[in-house]
Design brief:
The protein contains 18 helices and 15 strands. With 453 residues, it is an alpha/beta fold. Strand 10, helix 12 and strand 11 form a beta-alpha-beta unit. Helix 4 crosses helix 15, helix 9 packs antiparallel against helix 10 and helix 11 packs across helix 12. The structure holds pyridoxal-5'-phosphate (PLP).
Length: 453
């Protein structure tokens, strides 16, 4: 056994296919429904939004889907990503547990999101699409798609949630550096945006509203399609390159994980690290415990209902069965912007229902405390979203300490926090609070779920 700090793969060892968990699920994920007819949708229904290859991937039951050569070439700008053993964090905690983390902050955008932005841009360009619209909250997805778009000569239009647009000018500057156009949402450029602004001119925006605006523009023009950075099956599949690399890296370390931890916003970085391991378990191998960590202020897996719901506020998307807080739910303004979404990926929701994963929720102040402890031990300043995974991993390591166990814990450090330093400043100034959502608003949002028999 090699007891190292860093486990690096060669470029030639980078996985050449993504893993599709749909191949190994004995109970298939419930179908996506047309919002009008409530019947399962077919490929033609999605054609205005996505290129054909992406639609096929969305419903594929092939176990392995080959990563196109040009996508592999771009991946190699930062992949394979390193896996670290957190020796110094282990010491700081006084735990017998071995803690490993996969670091996705080495990508150009500083998070896992380019893993799907690059193939999405590639497939669109290959099918003749000229322009992609999308939404972004904190800006990580918009940045990633802007980067991928310029590689494949696509025009990128990003609707950024108004509060983030105002509060995070550097993210916008990065998107513009990559050549994208970025608009605050709600905007005056769509019918839905104008409707929202008419009701409330100072609306702070939300991911659900920005999705509605991006979708509206995509369906209007033949040369324009839409790209989503999380939630959908193909997005989670593209992210499995993370877990597939981790499997090889843990072999180098000669260990198998007892616990895998990831943070969940829409579920993509979590699915990315967890699904290849769940797949091994479903095919008869060892099944680790898998823990999803979500923010207590937007707790779709732990407090949401497993039901059919819209992906957006304007009700333009198809209906998917997922853990949801209701499409009209607006979470309080906590700092992990990437985790402020009302729903959860249908595939993550499905494996939760099958009891293949667990879920816990933590508040933002305790997550920042975990992130600061991690930064001081390991040197990397994590994204506020990633702090949730760190908090989850630390809790597991402290449990091992209490129980005198030396388990192996692996978590996904999905991004760095270099554009989130305002939130760290607030944490150090004691200005961060644990805002809870309004129970009455949640009840109202859940009572408004579409009725599907
Ligand atoms: C977008 C983002 C998330 C949340 O999205 P998932 O699909 O749940 O992964 C988490 N962490 C970072 C760093 C992000 O950029």
């Amino acid at each position: 056994m090699q007891d190292k700090t860093k486990y690096l793969l060669d470029e030639s060892e980078m996985p050449k296919a993504w893993y599709n968990i749909q191949a190994d699920l004995k109970v298939p994920v419930p179908p996506v429904l047309h919002p009008g007819t409530l019947k399962p949708i077919g490929p033609d229904d999605l054609a205005p939004l996505f290129p054909r290859e992406i639609i096929l991937q969305e419903v594929s039951t092939e176990r392995e889907i080959e990563i196109p050569g040009p996508v592999q070439e771009i991946y190699k700008l930062w992949r394979p990503a390193p896996l670290y053993r957190a020796h110094r964090l282990e010491k700081a905690l006084g735990t017998l547990a071995k803690i490993f983390y996969k670091y996705e902050g080495v990508s150009p955008a500083g998070s896992h999101k380019p893993n799907t932005a690059v193939p999405q841009a590639f497939y669109n360009a290959a099918e003749g699409v000229k322009r992609l619209t999308t939404e972004t909250g904190a800006g990580q997805w918009g940045t990633s798609l802007s980067f991928a778009g310029q590689i494949f000569n696509l025009e990128i239009l990003v609707f950024q949630v108004r509060v983030s647009y105002d509060q995070k000018p550097y993210r916008r500057a990065v998107m513009e550096t990559y050549g994208a156009r970025c608009l605050p949402s709600p905007s005056n450029e769509t019918e839905y945006g104008r409707k929202v602004l008419a009701e409330r001119p100072d609306h702070p925006g939300s991911l659900g509203i920005a999705i509605s605006e991006a979708v509206e523009l995509a369906v209007q023009r033949d040369d324009t399609k839409y790209a989503l950075g999380s939630v959908l099956n193909h997005v989670l599949m593209h992210q499995t390159i993370v877990g597939l690399e981790v499997i090889k890296q843990l072999e180098m370390a000669d260990v198998y994980p007892d616990v895998i931890v990831g943070c969940t916003g829409g579920g993509s970085n979590f699915g990315g690290i967890a699904f290849p391991f769940i797949g091994q378990g479903l095919r008869g191998g060892k099944m680790p415990r898998i823990v999803a960590v979500e923010p207590a202020a937007c707790p779709s897996l732990t407090r949401g209902k497993y039901a059919y719901d819209f992906g957006d506020t304007g009700h333009m998307t198809p209906l998917t069965k997922m853990h949801t807080l209701g499409s009209s739910f607006t979470p309080p303004g906590f700092h992990a912007g990437g985790l402020r979404y009302h729903g959860m990926a249908p595939l993550v929701s499905h494996v939760k229902e099958l009891n293949l994963i667990e879920a816990v929720a933590y508040n933002q102040v305790e997550c920042f405390a975990a992130g600061v402890l991690f930064a001081r031990a390991e040197g990397i300043v994590p994204a506020p979203e990633a702090n949730h995974a760190i908090k989850g991993a630390i809790e597991e390591a402290l449990r091992c300490k209490r129980e005198g166990r030396s388990e192996t814990i692996v978590f996904n450090l999905c991004g760095h926090g270099h554009f989130d330093m305002t939130s760290y400043q607030k944490y150090f100034a004691g200005e961060l609070t644990d805002e809870s959502y309004d129970e009455a608003e949640l009840a109202m949002a859940l009572s408004g779920l579409p009725s599907v028999s």
